Amino acid sequence: MRTQNTALTIALAWALVVGVAAQRGGRGGPPPDSKPTPPADARIEKLKQDAAAEADAMRIFTQQMVDQVFSYGELGFQEIETSKYLTGVLEKNGFTVERGYAGMPTAWVATWGSGKPVIALGSDIDCIPQASQKPGVGYHDPIIAGAPGHGEGHNSGVPLNIAAALAAKKVMEREHIAGTLKLWPGVAEELVGAKAYFVRAGLFKDVDVSLFAHVGNNLGVSWGGGTGTGLVSVEYMFKGESAHAAAAPWRGRSALDAVELMDVAWNFRREHLRLQQRSHNVITNGGDQPNVVPQNAAVWYYFREVDYEHIKELREIGDTMAKAAAMMTNTAVSSRLLGSAWPQHMNKTIAETMYANILQVGLPKWDDTDITLAKGIQTELKQPAIGLATQLGGMRGGLNPADNLGGPSDDIGDVSWNVPTVTLSYPANIPGMPGHNWANAISMATPIAHKGVTAGAKVQAMTIVDMLTRPELVQQAWDYFRTVQTKDQKYVPFVGPDDKPAIWMNAKTLEQYRPEMRKFYYDPTKYKSYLEQLGIKYPTVRTTTGGENR
Ligand SMILES: [Zn+2]
């Protein structure tokens, strides 16, 4: 009887929220050819409620995990403390951990359960260069000036997945539900450096459903392609001949000249590239000192486009220009692939199932303190002071690829072409931030992130239970994957059989900052929160007089 009542309540709530979403239409509502998956039978809906309640009950633990990883602030391929901590948590909770996965010291796969379906849960763990920032402070105030920090919010996704997995595990154990949970970390996502190698190593070979999570400022999910880009990340190394730059410059051949000529040429060519392309570079080696003709110089490019063919084409143009620059300067050039990402294509069935759960969970309840922090940093950055999300984002999907004008990339794209995948976006951040910036770190160890991650964990846990108990959904997901998504487009990895993950990257930076950063690692045995450990009054924002309100 109690179960039936619960089911009735859920059915009514579902009808109501779907109605509201539909009325809202446009950006807020689901795409016209898409609707949230209808509720399952009463027994399954009850199990989903139980899983969500378990995730909710874990919120203190979730807060500790979010704060802990925030305090580590490790760049791509150097997520040593982060991975040690997260795998420790998983082992303590009965997961079997395989470390050093796919030739990456900070990569791992943690598995629990047995049999089908196999559900993979992934999220990124690396941070952003020079994005160190005190949480809860609404203006630029680094913990350590120049140090890396979580200016993308990647400290929150694996904690979310762990909370969801442990919640689902409890229900699975109690109800003797078959299935395997497989957690994995997005190592070096900012370098799009790992996921193609995970695919190559076979991480997703036996996986039925892949649930990814990425920080955002609302609860949402999407399906299909037609947004963002994929990319290849390539470094060109030029080799010349050194000489005294004043005494015998005619003896030298400058590798830096080649780098500069390539960059100038690329920027002229830009006018004649498709509007969809996005490309950018940094000079990773510009020589040693002016009076020594640079014998070595290097430049690192991200070549982004909206589909596989165009990404390949863009790289070929880059290769040609590098060769031409080498010819002009009588230097030699070689190149290496540092990362790659396929454009994303997300699964319709899983997105619709997840969206139904998003409608049930809803947005967290923000306090005045949360909104004050949000408005504080929005004002500081001269953005509209809109505070935090108060209306659920819609479900986006079925966009026309021809309308795609490009945007960012994520190597979850590679996973999405190998197994039905979606990305859950959860509200741990503040709207209007620039991205890849200290400002994006401000909320990431505050109640905003803690509440947003718990809301996301509930959605994720419910979706896991859906996939475990409703085999028809897994079947539909694969039908979409086989007959729609991959009908005319097959996955061809950008990484070749001889390419290796760029695991040396960022090692020097961490070597430089880690000793100082260690002093600020979060100690949950002494402090309830990282804010408390740092002695930060929440929130700290500038007052209107321009003074600081500490
Ligand atoms: Zn990211």
Report what the structure shows.
It is built from 15 helices and 12 strands. The protein is of the alpha/beta class and 550 residues long. The strands form 3 sheets. The chain has a 6-stranded mixed sheet. Strands 8-9-7-10 form a 4-stranded antiparallel sheet. A two-stranded parallel ribbon has the order 6-11. The model is unreliable at 1-8 and 12-29 (pLDDT under 50). Helix 1 crosses helix 2 and helix 2 (42-57) packs antiparallel against helix 12. The structure holds zinc ion. Zinc ion binds next to loops.
What's the gist of this structure?
The chain is α/β, with parallel strands linked by helices.
Strand content: 15-25%
Give the cofactors and ligands: zinc ion
Kindly report how far apart the N and C termini lie.
54 Å
Q: Assembly state here?
A: single chain
Task: Give the SSE map.
Layout: H1 2-24, H2 42-57, H3 59-72, H4 80-92, E1 96-99, E2 108-114, E3 118-124, H5 157-175, E4 179-186, H6 195-201, E5 209-216, E6 221-223, E7 230-239, H7 255-269, E8 278-285, E9 296-305, H8 308-329, E10 332-341, H9 348-361, H10 368-380, E11 395-397, H11 412-416, E12 421-427, H12 447-469, H13 471-485, H14 507-518, H15 530-534
Parallel strand pairs: 3-4, 3-5, 5-12, 6-11
Antiparallel strand pairs: 1-2, 2-4, 7-9, 7-10, 8-9
Zinc ion (ZN) binds next to loops.
Question: What are the salient characteristics of this protein?
Answer:
550 residues, 6-stranded mixed beta sheet, 4-stranded antiparallel beta sheet, 15 helices, disordered N terminus, binds zinc ion
